Amino acid sequence: MPANSPGLVGRRIAYYRNVARPRLTQEQLAARAGVALGTIRKIERGERGVTDSTLDAIASALGVDPSRLVADREHVSTRIRDALPALSAAIATYDMPDDGPIRPLPELHASVAQATAWRLSAQYLQIARRIPDLLAELARASASAPPANAPQIAELLVTAYRAADAVAYKHGARDLSARLIELMRWAAPSAQDPLLAAMVGYVRTETFFAARAHSAGLRALEQAIDACPSPVDAEAVAACGALHMRAAVIAGRAGQGEAAEAHLTEARGLGDRVREGVYQGTAFGPDSVRIHEVSVAVSLGDAHVQRAFDVAREWTPPAYLPAERRSGFWIELARAQLWGGLVDDAFESLKVARRIAPQHTREHPWVRGDVATLRRLKRADAESLTSFAEWCHAD
After folding, report:
1. Is the overall model pTM greater than 0.85, yes or no?
2. What's the rounded Cα separation, in Å, for the pair 260 and 300?
């Protein structure tokens, strides 16, 4: 049976419909997805194929990533890469937008909030399909906004740029990612919100990670920390704490162990002052700090893997954390396990990461390198490992 035959896709849709909480009937799924009931029935029986738009609508209604409904994961990645030119075109006219409709502010807020939710759950295809039009609309809104609305529009622009950057960065479009980050820095001052500026400083670190300019990235983060508002309320505590978390990781990559420990200690103290949650689009709290303990251990190198094992022995990320962050924990733990000679454990961790956030895991460069290493170390053509390697294009 072909990998994406109607029968296979239909069975997967029926499975996720039945395991949804609460369980969905075919009628309820049809209503949520905006698809005719007869179409849903025929798809589940394997009597008709599924177009990309219908598949996306059904996946959204089920609350699952579209890649979970098809066997050909390359189909999803190809669609994301095919959408990048439209994203590039949308930001090319950021200061001279075309004429077009502009929805009321509450509707724009809702669309940007949805894009952020997709980013946190690593649903990059959903972002890629919708973000170009949203950015174009926000550019029109910015150009015509009355002074009273300008800060709100600027904040929405920055947040939407961040969602777009997640797609570009995760899929290796580093130049496009850098352009989006510069647009975030351009728009942020108009929002007149120092906490938003702190968030931009957090995201900007991607540029330094991509360039392997870790020492420069650490300096940029420390400047952002100095400029961050005093950590008095929860939002400011989270902004400052997130900057310290990221500074700890990049300090580790720079080989500055003492700086990494100092920033991690600061992040831990701030994390203890707030409940775990998403602040300014970034997860922060005690659980996020614990995940970054593993990140710092891996960043400092294989001599520090025991620290990662100590964290994982007592704790694993709870389900309420964003999927992207949880999958990142398992990816980094897998690297530590690989360095520690725990080959089977490393593969199990990668499989957990894939179950949590398939698009994030598939495009992560560490996954490809580590799976290739696992295949060499196991010295056996295990079917499951081979299948995983083909899925993520490991050498």
Report:
1. yes
2. 9
22 upstream amide cis, omega within 30 of 0: yes
Residues β-bridged to residue 277: 284
Q: Give the integer Cα–Cα distance in Å for 349 and 330.
A: 5
Boundaries of every domain in the chain: 1-71, 73-171, 193-300, 321-395
Count Cα atoms within 13 angstroms, Cβ side, for 392.
27
pLDDT, one tens digit per residue, over 161-189 is 999 999 999 999 999 999 999 999 999 99
pLDDT tens for residues 331-352? 999 999 999 999 999 999 999 9
The 10 Å Cβ neighbour count of residue 193 is 18
Rounded Cα distance, 15 and 243, in Å: 41
Which superfamily does CATH assign the domain made up of 1-71 to? lambda repressor-like DNA-binding domains (1.10.260.40)
